[in-house]
Every structure is written in C-alpha cells, then in structure tokens.
Amino acid sequence: MSGQEFLVKGKIVDAATGNPIEAATVYAETIKDSTLVTYTITNADGFFALEGKTAYKRLRLAFSSNGYQSVAQEVELKPEVNLSVIKLEERVEQLAGIDVIGERVPITIKKDTLEFNADSFKVRPDATVEDVLKKLPGVEVDSDGKITVNGKEVNQVLVNGQVFFSTDPKVATKTLSKDVISKIQITNTKTKEQEFVGEEGDGETKTINLTLKEDKNKGYMGRLSGGYGTDDRYQANGLLNYFNDTQRISILGSSNNINNPGFSFDEIYEMVGNSRGRGFSFNNNGGFAIGNLSFGFGQGITTSSTLGASYADQDKGKYKTDGNYFYAYSDSYNNEKTSRENILPDGSYFTDTESSFVGSTISNQGSANLEFDVDKTTRITIQPSLSVNNTSSTDSDNTVSTDEDGNLINSSTSLQTTDGFQRTFSNRLEIMKKLDTLGSYARVYFDNNNRVNDSESFLNAQRSIFGDNPSEQVQDQQTTIDNANDSYELGASYRHALNKDLYLDFRYSYNNNEQSNERSVSDFDEVTGDYVFNSSLSSDFNFNVDKHVPEVGFGSNGKKFRFNLRARIEQIGLDNEDFIQSTTFSKDYSNLLFNSYANYDIGNGKRFSAHYNTNLNVPSVNQLQPVPNVSNPLNIIVGNPNLGPEITHNLYLNYNNYNWKDRTGIFLYSGMTFEKDKIVSSTTTDENFIRTTNYQNVAGNYRGWAGISYSKQIKKDSLYTLKFTINPYANISRQVGFTNGSRLEAKTLNLNPRIGLMFNYKEMIELEPEYRLGINATRYNLDNVANIDYITHNLAFKLTTFWPENLVWGNDITYSYNGNLGAGFDKDAIFWNMSLGLQMFKKKATLKVLAFDLLNQNINSQRTTGQDFIQDYQGTVLKRYFMGSLTIKFDSFGGKGAPEKGGGPRFIRF
C-alpha cells in the first residue's frame, strides 16, 4: 500500500457552554492495533488541523481534554476531512456517530504540565527512558545525554515525584526501562517556595517526572553486567531497585578501568569508556560526577570502584523523604604535554611542558532531603549533606622556555607529592507557612556550610637560567596547609499577596563567612637534615566576611504575563589578619543590586522571557594573600590585599515556539554579561622569562552569546520517524589583563553551528548523523601580536540495527579535525566504537562483544586562547581494546492495577 497524505479539520467546544476548548488533544490511531499515527492540539479558538501520511484507508480519531470525557470516531480518510464541531462533555455521554473511549491520550496539557503517555510512542522492547524521550515532540537529547524541552534545559528528573539517587537527569533516564513508565510529565522547575504555595516556575529550566505504572509500582527491578577484554580492561556493575507504592530502595555498585561510573544500562553503547562523552559528566583527569557528587581527579584514565544506596518515601500531606550514600575509590593517571605562546608587549616567548600525574581518592558522600507537613499550611524542610575525601597524588613536570629565535632561556623540573583530606558538612533548615489562599506566605531558614581542607606536600624542583648570567636554584620544600571555612546564614522572607496575581516581597538575610588559612612552608637544611620553617613563604591568614542583605520586590503571577522586580542592598564588611606577616586590613562595601524577570505567554506554544540580575563577588583568600607561592619556580604568584569586589551585570532574552501542527520548534536565546572591576591577573616577566603574577581590578571585560535551536519531526504511521535539528550559535568576549605594565585586550569571536538528524525505520534501524563546526577568531590590541584564527570540524555518525530479531549491531563514529595545532600535536582522528549484542532468554540477557576505538586513533588534543597566551594541549586517552560482556535483567512485579487485556481504549461500535 502506498501512503496517502490527509488533513482533518474541526473545532472542539464545551458541550454545555459552546465555548472553545484550548489545548485539547486530537490524535489518530490505527483501528487494528491502536498504533499512534499522529496527533495535534487545538489553538486558543478550539480549532485543530490534524495532518499526516499513512498507508491505512481508515483511522480512529480521538478527542480529549483535561476535565472532559474523551470521545472517538472512525474516519474514512480523504485528502481533506472536515468534522465541523466536536462537543466534549464533562460526563460520559453517548453522542450520535461518536464512540466513548477510555484514557489513552498521547499528550495532555494540564495548566503548566505537559504529560505524555509513554506507551503511545513506539520504541524497541528493551528501550530505556532516554529512548522514549528522543521520540517526544520538542524534546532533544544530545550525545552527552543532556535533555532540552523546547530549548530549555532539563535540570532534574524525578520518579513518582521523588529524587532518584540525585537530581542528575541521566541517572534515571539511562537506568530505568521504558516498560515500567506510565506517564512522562514535563513542568517548569520550581523552587521550594513555589512548590509549596502552588506557584508556577519561571520556565528557565524544566523538570521531568516519571510516573511508574501501577502494576510496576510493587516489586523489584535489577540489572547485572560484567565484561573483560584486552589490555586487562574490565567492567562490572549492578543496580537493584525495590518499589512499594511510594517507597523506593535502590542499591548500585560498579568497578571498572574504562573511565565509566557504570550506572547506565544502554546495552549497545555504554560501558565503553566515555564514548563521545556519553553517560555522566567527566572531569579533567578521568574523575566523574553524578549530579553534585564528584569522584576522582581529572583527565586521563581512571580505575574506579563505587557503591551507593538511595531511599525515598512519602505520605502526601504528611512527609516526603529521600537520601543517598556513595562510597568511591579511584586511581587516575595522565601524561600530557602543552605548548604555550606567552604574549608580551614587545614580543613573545614559548613554553613547552611535559608532565605526568598519578593520583588516588577515597570518597564518602551522603545527603538527605526531609520534608514534614505539620498541617496544610506549614512545612518544615531539613537538608543535611556530608562528604569526606582522602586524596593522594604525585605530579612531575619538565618545562623549557625559549625566545622567538628558539634560544633556550630557562628550564625547570619538579616532583611534588601531596596527601590531602577534605570534609564538608552542610545543612539547611527551613520553615514555610501559608498565610492565606491568595498566595501570601512567610519563610525563615538557617544554612550552615563547614569545610576543612588539609594537605601535606613535598616539592623537589630545580630551576635553571641560561644565557650570559646562568644560574641554578634548587628547592626541597615541605608545605602543610590547614584550611577551614565556616559559613552561616540566617534569612527570612514574607510575601504579601495584593490579589490573586500581584504581590509584594520582603526579604532579609545575614551571612557570616570565616576562613582560616594556615600555610606553613619549610626548606630542607642539608646540614641538619631537617626541614626549617620559612616565614617569608608562610602565612597564617584569617578572613572574615559579614554580609547584610535587605531586599524588596514586586511581582505578578498572571496567567499570561508574569514578572518580578527586586532590589537589594548588599552591605559587606571584610576583615583580614595575617599573624605571621603581621598585616591586617579591613574593608566595607555597600552596593545596590537588582534582579528582575518577565515571562509573557503569547499563546499557542509561544513564550518570551527576559531576565536581568547583578551579582557581587568578593576576592578569594588566595587572591588577597600578599605571600609568594613558589610551587611553580617559573611562575610566582602573589596576592593583592587591596582588591575590591567585582560586580557582574547579566541580561538574558529567550523566545520559544513549538508548533504542534507542524511538529516544529524554535528557540531563540541571547545574553550579555558585563563585569565591573573584574579581578584579573597582572603578570611581570623578567629578562629570564620568570613570571610573577599579581591580581588587580579592571574594567572592560564582557561576554555575549546568541543562538537558535530549530527542530522538525516527521512521522509516518509506525513506518519511520525523522527528526532533525539545526543549532547555530555564536559568542563574543573581551578579556582584559596586564603584562609588564601594559594593558592587554583579547577580543574573541566563536561561531559554532551544529546540524543533527535522527532517522528510525520500523524500530529496526536508527541513524543519527551530526556535524559541528567551530570557528575561532581572536584579536589583540598590541600591534606585534598576530591575529589568531582556527577552525575545528566534528562529524559524528551513529548507526544501530535491531535486525535480525534479537541481534543488535551498534556503530558510533566521530571524526575530529583541528588543523591549527602546532607541530607534534595530533590534528585529526577517527574515533570508532562498535558493538554486537545477542539478546537471549526473552531479552532478559544480552551477550555483547564491543570494540572501543576500533581504528586506534583516539586523541585528546585542543587549542585554547586567553588574554595573554595561545596554548596547545594533548593528554592521555583510552586506546583500542576489545571486550566481551554479559548483561542480565531480573524483574518481578506484583502490584495492583494489572493492565487490561488487549490494551488500548474501550471502543463501542454503533
């Protein structure tokens, strides 16, 4: 059968009043098996136009709106069908020629919530939640697992309204099977106050709530996976979820040496060592993070073992609790090289560095969220968090500096070992009270954050200076650091509702932040064989900040137009004392700052928003301490006690529009940040290219950006789905600093267009090509500095086949090119991961063979530019290995509400 295009028009009204119903859902499904064909929603006047292409001659059309009885009728398809007026009743009532149906609506709009029926979107049987999200209109999931809805980022994913391990969206979307999900609800992310009083969020970020099916809400769901490969690469991990109505208990564990936390169960591409950045976020030496929990160090290769547990429960109107605990151990190593051009007012010099890093960390981290509703108007929230980390590392560096003619000027070698201990405890106690039904409320809170950061390091370094006056300097130093930071904040706020829309806000907060920084440096004495205290390089520094912030605001929570205007005065008292250097200084600041936003709901999926805010940042302890830090013999750092605070002005503009009829979405965004009295580095380089870095306040720094996100979805029955996205993006910046007394400005323009495509044919084959272009242009204000221009290309192609049945073949290929890297740096590579999986025992087990970096070309090379430098970098990466693995699923559910036989809506023929 050849497909035919069709158009069905009509209007949906309230049967009792005749008023049009906005945002009612109209969808078409096959009569034979209730497969979703297409859908749309009505506009503000109740009109709809349902377009599609299908091989079927007749379809069932269904009409639904929140609060009304859904109805359906069969339609003989023609190029154009006019149904005139469809009336929806608030109660079940038989209408002439129309059949009453049950609730099986693919999409429902409820005030500020967009709700999708997970079963209405066809995916393969073993799909994860992330696979379903990729099918939803207006939802984008990039190669890093980042989710956006109509251009707005999703910053948390909940399960049955509760946190799942952490608010990191990828924890739930990559571990939960689609089969257990009933509804996918998308709302604007709300603050605790907005959630408590029933106010809408500001719409800048989104929250996804996954509702479990009733028959899947009692029982357990487990996953086990293990693999071993060449070069002794291995991975093993497991996850067990227990559900009992509102209660959830989860346990997970992982161990591997392929840079993967191992909590994702994508049986095709995951467990292959951070392919294209998929999975969780990674730091510089191979460390990783789950939400706000960080493990390990940064770039390189990491061997890690992790064990975690999570608990959640709630009784609506009484309490809501969730908590988690993680233990992690990791070993990391990284070899890297950098080539850096350092810009001076009268020329440049060059620094080449080869370094090696080895480190280990043991982490214990736990947190909880406890909410208690004393009555319908009062809520108490307690949010404790504790982390304890022990670290050990060894760093070695070999650096040489040359002039523009290639003459050797200086060199240094260093070996540093460090053992560290960090402990952080924080807690928030908050009490909120509703005062009336209009939205008035009062809130008081107390926050504390107590941190300890201790370390002991040994540095052995040698600095050599060549030329007419050669010299050598040897360092053998012991440094102990005892840092403590205790911060306490007490605040209160009161909202007075003037009517159901307008309100006044009054807020006050007091914050005290006390930091003690004891840095003891000792030099090795060859005569005595002991380390001798060096007072000129040591410090015992107390840093105290008192902040008083009164604030007043005025706003509206109108249905179409929402705004908030706030003004605050930040009064800051800063006191500092160094007991070793016998220096003290005090400063007082008082600044008037503003925050505001406005959201306008134009209608029919269109929304415009504008935000403006100002922020004040005080200098850090390291920026203020006037004590030399000589841990890098070629770059000595000294603080400036005369620094003032920096103030940033931020402006954001957003416009988004999703057309349900055409399945097209467009999101326009732009922003600008101006930095007043920005704290910047000021370097002085002597004739031997030894740098001394200081800090000072400067005006003239700014950043600006603008971008467009456009998406289009095309679907034909269950035959194929085509979705493409176009994302042009640009940013500009000016960085101001000082070198050898001269003002140095670097103006940078970046252009980063992206185009992506997803094509799925009968859930048998899926194609995902993507291309990214990076154009960088940097201009300096000094005549002797050449312009910097470079271009990067990234072409990715993902091919997955699910045919023949039970056989899954995956290919993930990325080509990267950066032709402007210097000599000795890899400029391009093809990174290809391939896997072949066999699903067995009714898809309860998957046997897989995978090849990571099949062509053995994986690289980590990049170029960066700054206000006074151009730098090329290359670090250690995982190279080619092959691995065999087995993944086993074990689920057991016995809840109420088993699905009805036959599925689909009730359909009564006449």
UniProtKB/TrEMBL annotation:
The residues the entry assigns to the signal sequence are none
Q: Which InterPro entries match?
A: CarboxyPept-like_regulatory, OMP_b-brl_3
One matching Pfam family, short form?
CarboxypepD_reg
Q: Which domain of life is it from?
A: Bacteria
Ranges for the region named Disordered are: 386-413
Q: Which residues form the Outer membrane protein beta-barrel domain?
A: 433-886
Official protein name in the record: Outer membrane beta-barrel protein
Species lineage, top-down? Bacteria, Pseudomonadati, Bacteroidota, Flavobacteriia, Flavobacteriales
Q: Where is the composition biased (Low complexity)?
A: 387-401
Q: Which UniProt keywords are present, listed alphabetically?
A: Receptor
Q: Which ranges does the record mark as transmembrane?
A: none
> Could you confirm whether the keyword Coiled coil appears in this record?
no
